[in-house]
Structure formats: C-alpha cells, structure tokens
Amino acid sequence: MADKKKKVSFSAAPNLGRHESGCRICAHPQRHEIEREFISWKSPAKIAVEYKLRDRSSVYRHAHAADLFPKRARNLRAALERLIERIDDVPASAGAIVQAIATHARINSQGQLVEPSEHVHLNDLFDRMTPEELEVYAKDGTLPHWFTGVVGATSPQGPGGNGNA
Fold first, then answer.
1. Statement: the pTM of the whole predicted model exceeds 0.85
2. Cα–Cα distance, 67 to 159 (Å, whole number)
3. Which of 4-18, 44-58, 99-113 has the highest mean pLDDT?
4. Which among 44, 50, 92, 147 is most buried, taking Cβ atoms within 10 Å?
C-alpha cells in the first residue's frame, strides 16, 4: 500500500504574529529599506548579504508573510528599469534591449501592462460619413471634424507637412 503524502497548501496567509516573533527582517532597524528594495526587484540574495541576513530564503519568507509580492508585481517598471540601466554591463542583444524598453513604455502607473488594442478601419469611417460630407471630401479633400478626432490629427499636407502625402 502506497503512502499518501499530505499536500501542504501555501495559499493560506501566514500567522503574522508568529512570523514577526522570529523574523530578523521584522526586527531589523532597516526593515523598510529591505522591503522597499525587494519591491524594487533587487535580488533577494543581494539584500541578504547587504543587510547581514541569513540567506535569500529569509527575504522570501518575510516577503510572503508581509504580502510584498503583489506590490512587487505592480512594480514591473522598476525591474525593467534595472535591466535597461545595465545595458553597458550585461551582454544583451539589441532585440532584447528594444523589447525591454518597449515593454517598459506599455506599463502604466499601476504596474499593469497595457496593450494597444485600438484598430481603426478607414472604410468603416467613410461608411459613417453623410452624403454631404462625402461630397465635400470629393470636391476639396476636407474631412469632417469628427473624422480626425477618431483617426488622429494630421497635417493637411500629409504627415511631413511638406505637401508630399
């Protein structure tokens, strides 16, 4: 008969009082700095060395107990900034650097990745134009005011403003 192993669930919140009583980070005079650096994606191993903690597992244990992971996840911009700042120190392909910068640009202030999802189909916009608006457009190329509000403003001479559209 096979022994059934008892599964341990880590989804339950730890007992904070019990954690605080034995946690060196909770008692550390620089606790807030340690937590700030963890949330800013500093390496837990480097945090442990810098603040003379036992090892990185103590940092992770404290982060779980103090519920720092959601804050860290919302702070992805900091992780990407650290990568981008180390461009001269770390061998990386140009594609990886551009991808990190592009991803950084798409993260909003709440730490959420915002993907551009708006697609404008010009044919649909022309279908919305009234017969009068179509007539004016056919005669002199003037689009209705609402059209440029949907598509975005462009110069009457084209994107470069030099008449070469």
1. no
2. 49
3. 44-58
4. 44
From the list 111, 100, 8, 7, the residue with the least C-alpha distance to 69 is 111
Copy the structure tokens of residue 68: 């720092």
Identity of residue 117: S
Residue that the structure tokens 């005079």 belong to: 29
Q: Output the pLDDT for position 162.
A: 42
14-33 as b/e: b if 16+ CB within 10 A: eeeeebeeebbbeebeebee
Longest dimension (CA), the chain: 88
Domain ranges of the chain: 16-74, 76-105, 122-151
Q: What is the pLDDT of residue 106?
A: 82
C-alpha span between 80 and 140 (Å, rounded): 49
66 Cβ contact partners less than 8 Å away, ≥ 6 residues apart:
26, 35
Query: Could you tell me which of 66, 72, 68 has the C-alpha nearest to residue 17?
Result: 66
